[in-house]
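User: I'm putting together a teaching handout on how sequence relates to shape, and I'd like one worked example. Could you take MmcQ/YjbR family DNA-binding protein from Caulobacter henricii, show the sequence you're using, and then write out its predicted structure as tokens right after it?

Assistant: Happy to. First the sequence, then the structure tokens directly below it.
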Amino acid sequence: MTEDDFRRIALSLPGAIESAHMGTADFRVGRIFATLGYPDAAYGMVKLTPDRQDMLVAAEPAIFQPVKGGWGAKGATLLCLAACDEPTATGALTAAWRGVASKTQLKAFDAVHGPA
């Protein structure tokens, strides 16, 4: 997985735009659901629920780890780009997007892709 792959997947989600936040690229649909380049270029970050974070960290510890501190406790999860494949990144980014997307966006997405 490259930075360009992560960016392409994030921007493929309905309504997603790229912006910047604290010196890193971020992806948002009103609110941020992912960032790229924190803590360095080897990582992306996906904003998950704590339960989803726990599940992914337990299943794929070489790919996922909680961000240190309070943000990590709330679900901010690092994704190691080099260790991640496209289907895994797509699932994580889609879960993060679902957490901030509007009800209208979710309904339209689910009509095409099926509910989560």
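A couple of points you could highlight for students: The helical segments are 3-12, 50-59, 70-73, 86-100, 103-113. The first helix runs from residue 3 to 12.
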